[in-house]
Design goal:
about 500 residues, Rossmann fold, GMP Synthetase, Chain A, domain 3, five-stranded mixed β-sheet, globular
């Protein structure tokens, strides 16, 4: 079954459900749903959307934590031609209200059946019961304006960026991009009907929507679906739930390793596990080696973003690399490494990553200025990420252009310093940021999380850094923090670290 035969994401689901209606698809703590059973939920919600006057080009906002009803809503929106717009239910009331203002939705749904937070948002919105017991929906907004023309049929969803460097923007995610991403992700894992993926990653984020949901639909694989992350449940599912695929951001694996240490477990039981993957944030070698040692499989890595419907590069299945490569370019994608003038750089030289291809967004929702800021002649998207391509074609991502630190006239890449810090005994995570000084230079501040919250021995750490980093790369100060502020998709909010520690 090829994604290229379909033009909208629900067509892939409908074909899969027609060919194998009894195939179990969603495994939740309460029940297991077959494709046919999920299809009935989709049909019920499709009818409700049409009754409410939802038309092609409308937005349907879903304040959600993972559940079958959320999946059904995404597919029902596709059938109607509306754009699903997922927002993590754990966002604050102000954040949810702000996203609603941006999305201009015809109706807002809340997954109150699995989420106390969604239920609270529903109550504040004056929501009423939906046709499905696990959902509530707001009153229909008659003044919402549907998008018209060719764009209305291209777009499947709006994904809000995480806002790590500024105001979140609404990324328009196309049906073609999601279908292509589902196929590419399936092939990169050799995913099939016999597989089950652990699915806690929020489907309000491109990682959960694309890598998890779309790939499983394409392959006919099952999803062990959870609304919340619980390390004990992860290991229970690995031991007894037939989970073959485990995917998540580096922060997830850090928490899993910490849980194993707390329980005194050297190696977890995971008899069916065959594929382990991390993405959505940089990875360091210390974490990679620890995960591979404990789980007994290569930790695959990839590079993707909301603006490119998921993965631009993915590691090869089973390849054991002793580095933090983000893998190789996937089919349908193109990339360039360019200098400040947009000129191509030779292999091995660091520059900004530009991309284009099937998965590239049509733009940011109702924000032509923000779209123009990132688009370049020839249809290239300027990512703001810094990287280089190795001689073997593997991509290495070294940081963000805006986060690059200028110290004594030299470029300092935070990722390089973070990797060195994470090799020091006792440091499990590091975040390096620059802070402007009065002379126009930048101080290098390193925030670290330590095992057991034990402060690092600064004399030993300084000696270690002197052995591993040039003087201009060494942190001006190392600050131990209890926990990093994180986005819901597992990225460190470096801006918030500076705000919490304005004087370092």
């Amino acid at each position: 079954m090829t994604a290229m035969a379909f033009t909208r994401i629900h067509e892939l689901f409908d074909a899969r459900a027609a060919s194998a209606p009894a195939q179990p698809f969603l495994y939740t703590p309460e029940a297991t749903l077959t494709l046919a059973e999920l299809g009935r939920l989709v049909t019920q919600l499709e009818g409700e959307l049409r009754t409410d006057g939802v038309v092609p080009g409308d937005r349907v906002m879903i304040v959600a934590e993972n559940c079958p009803e959320h999946v059904a809503l995404i597919l029902a929106c596709s059938r109607v031609g509306a754009w699903s717009c997922g927002v993590n239910a754990r966002m604050s009331r102000g954040e949810v209200s702000g996203f609603a203002d941006k999305a201009d939705p015809r109706v807002v749904y809340f997954t109150g059946g699995v989420s106390d937070a969604a239920r609270q948002h529903a109550s504040e919105a004056g929501a009423r019961p939906s046709v499905l017991a696990g959902l509530q929906r707001s009153p229909v907004r008659l003044d919402a304006v549907a998008e018209q023309g060719e764009l209305a049929g291209r777009v499947a969803a709006i994904i809000f960026t995480s806002g790590t460097t500024g105001t979140p923007k609404g990324v328009l995610v196309s049906h073609a991009g999601l279908l292509q991403f589902g196929r590419v992700s399936t092939e990169s894992r050799d995913l099939g009907p016999q597989d089950r993926s652990y699915a806690y990653l929020p489907m309000t984020h491109i990682f959960g929507l694309g890598t998890v949901l779309m790939a499983s639909l394409h392959a006919g694989a099952g999803l062990v679906m959870r609304s919340k992350f619980d390390p004990a449940d992860v290991f229970e599912a690995l031991a007894h739930g037939g989970v073959t695929n485990l995917q998540g951001p580096p922060a997830m694996f850090t928490r899993l390793l910490a849980w194993l240490d707390q329980q005194g477990i050297a190696k977890p039981a995971c008899p069916a596990l065959r594929y382990v993957y991390t993405g959505a944030a940089p990875m360091d070698m210390a974490l990679k080696r620890a995960v591979e040692r404990r789980f007994g499989h290569p930790l695959h890595h990839g590079y993707g973003l909301s603006e490119y419907a998921g993965a631009l590069c993915v590691g090869r299945l089973g390849e054991q690399r002793d580095d933090t490569s983000a893998g190789y370019l996937v089919e349908g994608a193109e990339l360039r490494i360019v200098d400040a003038e947009g000129k191509d750089l030779p292999a091995g030289e660091r520059g900004e990553i530009w991309m284009r291809g099937v998965g590239l967004m049509p733009g940011y929702f109702r924000d032509p200025d923000a779209t123009a800021q990132v688009m370049r002649p020839g249809g290239w998207y300027a990512s703001g990420d810094l990287g280089y391509v190795a001689p073997d074609g593997a991509l290495f991502v070294v940081g963000r252009l805006k986060e690059m630190i200028i110290r004594s006239g030299f470029n300092v890449y935070p990722g390089e310093v973070e990797a060195v810090l994470c090799h020091f005994p006792g440091i499990q995570r590091a975040a390096v940021v620059g802070r402007k000084e009065s002379d126009g230079n930048e101080a290098i501040l390193a925030f670290v999380e330590t095992v057991g919250h034990v402060p690092p021995d600064m004399d030993r750490l300084n000696a270690y850094l002197a052995d591993h980093l040039a003087p201009y790369k060494r942190p001006s100060q190392v600050i131990a923090v209890e926990a990093f502020p994180m986005t819901h998709s597992g990225k460190v909010l470096k801006r918030s670290l500076l705000e919490l520690h304005p004087k370092g």
